[in-house]
């Protein structure tokens, strides 16, 4: 989902200027993956403003609020906003790693320090920064000095792994923040590094950790699934107009006109039937074996329809079967 309403708490306004929002919207549109809705563009602009003044930002919101989508959209928009390279993006899942795997450890017998995932990422960023500073001005190596390195922690904030990050979250200048390792080594955090955190709550986060990050709050909108459907239909039409459609053989019915017709029928079906079904399910109070959202249901439907569309490319238009009959029925439903 790429919907959501944001509230940035940083002591200063995090809302970007109108021209910046226009560039963000343009970048999202050109990427072709997401719909540049007003709330989504505002969230991306707010994240950009926060990362300009703080090293660490927490994206706070329930599942499906668009936390990862906002970060990825800003990553794609950076070249349009500042003319620099897109930030590198590393995702760390602390829940899947032990403390030693995340931060490193000291070998019991040899006493040798062994780096974990996070120290390796910081050393790589530090090395890249040193190379860029020593490079000839104007070269690609020198320009990489302007490239940010983002490290995203995709997990609920837990003191078990988050407390050791306190010294690394402070400041933006070289030497002002450092990661303290179990071997008692300190790794200075380069100015280019930014820490992003994704969480749905802060129940276990300590005040000292929260005070070191900016918080961008996202929430799911009532019509959260509509931008998802719009972006899916856009990708589906693009795939039909290119790739398979351009190579299609007219005898099998998978011509561009055939696929365009099927996309039109599916669009009418989804926009007409889905709201009614979701409303009926909510009114009936149906219970789910696992917690789910309307966004998840619609996303699953889109994936199923995408698989059927792939099958439709090899079905004959004169002998409708499977998706052919389904979309014919859907067209009648949509007209009704």
Spatial ordering of strands, largest sheet:
1-10-2-9-6-3
Euclidean distance between termini CA atoms = 29 Å
Instruction: Classify the beta-strand content into a percent band.
Output: 5-15%
Using only C-alpha atoms, the radius of gyration works out to: 24 Å
Q: Which stretches of 5+ consecutive residues score pLDDT under 50? A: 1-17, 248-254, 315-334
Approximate helicity band = 40-55%
**What is the average per-residue confidence, as pLDDT, rounded to a whole number?**
75
Shape: elongated
Name the structural class: alpha/beta
**Total beta strands:** 10
- Characterize the largest beta sheet: strand count, sense, and whether it forms a barrel: 6 strands, mixed
SSE order, as H and E?
Answer: EHHEHEHEEHHEHHEEEHEHHHHH
Question: With helices defined by DSSP (H or I, 4 residues minimum), what is the helix count?
Answer: 14
What is the element layout, followed by pairings?
Elements: E1 7-9, H1 18-31, H2 38-53, E2 56-60, H3 67-82, E3 88-92, H4 99-103, E4 104-106, E5 113-115, H5 117-134, H6 140-143, E6 149-154, H7 159-162, H8 166-169, E7 178-180, E8 186-188, E9 193-199, H9 207-210, E10 214-217, H10 225-241, H11 244-247, H12 256-284, H13 294-312, H14 323-335
Parallel strand pairs: 2-9, 2-10, 3-6, 6-9
Antiparallel strand pairs: 1-10, 4-5, 7-8
């Amino acid at each position: 989902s790429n919907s959501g309403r944001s509230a940035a708490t940083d002591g200063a306004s995090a809302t970007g200027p109108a021209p910046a929002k226009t560039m963000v919207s343009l970048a999202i549109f050109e990427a072709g993956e997401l719909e540049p809705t007003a709330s989504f563009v505002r969230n991306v602009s707010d994240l950009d403003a926060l990362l300009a003044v703080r090293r660490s930002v927490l994206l706070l919101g329930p599942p499906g609020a668009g936390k990862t989508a906002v970060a990825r959209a800003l990553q794609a928009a950076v070249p349009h906003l500042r003319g620099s390279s897109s930030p590198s993006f590393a995702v760390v899942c602390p829940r899947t790693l032990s403390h030693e795997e995340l931060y490193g450890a000291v070998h019991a017998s040899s006493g040798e320090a062994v780096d974990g995932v996070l120290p390796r990422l910081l050393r790589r960023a530090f090395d890249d920064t040193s190379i860029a500073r020593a490079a000839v001005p104007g070269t690609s190596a020198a320009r990489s000095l302007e490239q940010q390195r983002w490290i995203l922690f995709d997990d609920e904030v837990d003191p078990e792994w988050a407390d050791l990050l306190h010294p690394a979250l402070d400041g933006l200048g070289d030497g002002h923040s450092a990661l303290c390792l179990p071997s008692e080594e300190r790794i200075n955090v380069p100015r280019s590094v930014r820490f992003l955190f994704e969480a749905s709550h802060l129940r276990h986060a300590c005040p000292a950790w929260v005070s070191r990050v900016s918080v961008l709050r996202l929430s799911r909108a009532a019509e959260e699934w509509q931008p998802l459907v719009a972006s899916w239909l856009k990708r589906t039409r693009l795939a039909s107009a290119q790739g398979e459609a351009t190579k299609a053989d007219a005898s099998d019915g998978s011509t561009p006109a055939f696929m365009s017709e099927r996309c039109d029928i599916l669009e009418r079906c989804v926009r007409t039937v889905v709201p009614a079904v979701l409303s009926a399910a909510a009114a009936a109070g149906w219970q789910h074996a696992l917690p789910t959202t309307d966004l998840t249901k619609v996303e699953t439907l889109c994936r199923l329809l995408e698989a059927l569309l792939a099958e439709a490319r090899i079905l004959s238009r004169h002998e409708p079967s499977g998706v052919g009959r389904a979309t014919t029925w859907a067209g009648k439903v949509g007209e009704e």
